[in-house]
Write a structure and sequence with these properties.
Elements: H1 2-15, H2 17-45, E1 57-60, E2 63-67, E3 74-77, H3 81-89, E4 96-101, E5 105-110, E6 117-124, H4 128-131, E7 136-139, H5 144-149, E8 153-157, H6 158-165, E9 174-177, E10 180-188, E11 202-205, E12 225-230, H7 237-252, E13 258-261, H8 269-273, H9 284-326, H10 337-344, E14 349-351, E15 355-361, E16 372-377, E17 393-395, E18 402-405, E19 408-409, E20 416-417, H11 420-423, E21 432-434
Parallel strand pairs: 6-11, 8-10, 17-21
Antiparallel strand pairs: 1-12, 2-3, 2-13, 4-12, 5-6, 5-9, 7-10, 8-11, 9-10, 14-15, 15-16, 16-18, 18-21, 19-20
Helix pairs in contact: 2-9, 3-7
Amino acid sequence: MIKLYFKQAFHLLGENKLLSSISIIGTALAIAMIMVIVITLRATIAPFAPETHRDRMLIFRFAGLQSKSNVNWQSNGPIGYNTAKACFKAMTIPEVVSITNIWQETMLAAKPAGEMESCSVLQTDDAFWKIFEFEFLSGKPYDNADFDAGAAKAVISEDMARRLFGTSEVVGKTFLLNHSAYIVCGVVRPVSKLAKYAYAQVWIPLSSTSAFTATWGDDNIMGMTAVYILAKSKDDFPAIRQEADRLRAIFMAGHPNFDLLYRGQPDTYFVAAQRYSANNPPAVKEAVRQYILTLLVLLIVPAVNLSGLTLSRMRKRISEIGVRKAFGAPQTGAYDAGTIRKYALFPVRRNSRTGIKLCRRFPFGRNAFFRRLCIQWGGRFADHVCRLTVRSYRIPAGISGLLLTQFAKCRHSGMESNSHQYCGCHQRKIILQLI
């Protein structure tokens, strides 16, 4: 039966190749676009190494510094290391709090007396390696003692190690980073750029660069750092935000002329992905609405294509459905290809003169139209003399040579006949042909 369905499907597709091609290509492209959107959204918010804890992360990147004497005066941007340490590093509810440089920087790296190689560098603290899970091929990350000492140590990716030294076994070797010497303490697997906050090719201690002490704005509150918070559970998010507000109030007590605005931060990973500027709130609802509308539009396209394809096929087969109903098929079986086979196929016996012939009565209840039915296969199909107004129907059911006709009285001789040669009637009609 399933094989028959496939044959019918291919037969119908071949009847109108242009319409079928447009429908199939349109549906395929719409589904492909949906897959691209879903994969892109998943890559944006779903956890993967090294950002394996995205569902438990809170992110703080931008703040606003507002004057109490003039509310129209504001400075917006990242905060300094000392501000981040006072407002977040002292928190007790989270599992880990890390402070890093807010952006990756492009620097020139080279081994001594070697050629320069451009690379992406991220400056972090030692807690960074506890939040983001990197796969170390050799060595280990710099620890708290190295960070406090401002040690010139670096973790580099495998591809960067091969570019600089020609091998990945480089732990303990020295290279230059913007003309400053660093010792390789660990080598990690290359990181995808989709890992927005963990991606780099070289990672160095924040305390070994000027970003550690860089500040701007009044009272040196603003700077160039971002904060990543790893909660023990997502249920701790409200408590973490409350503790962050409490620590902010304590810190800002030493700066009575200003207010530090968090603007709803720290954010979850998805909300942080929608925050594109320091002084504007993230457009979360608009982003969700855009995703939903895009998916709906792309789903409507294949739905219209499939419905149009189905409608065109149904119009061509409406006659078949009518005949099936005439044969006594129930409402649910009128659209089943097995209905015709159920009522049209019967045991046959061979007749050497007329081929395979069968005359049988069918007790189809009130449907007296087909109470007497003759099925012939082979020979001359000249024995159907009838005045039926039923038109001819052609259905691809995979059966060849079956003709269904009905006995009728010849209108010329008045005699009941099953052979056209006796009456000369030319009003014969084939009711159903299965090919």
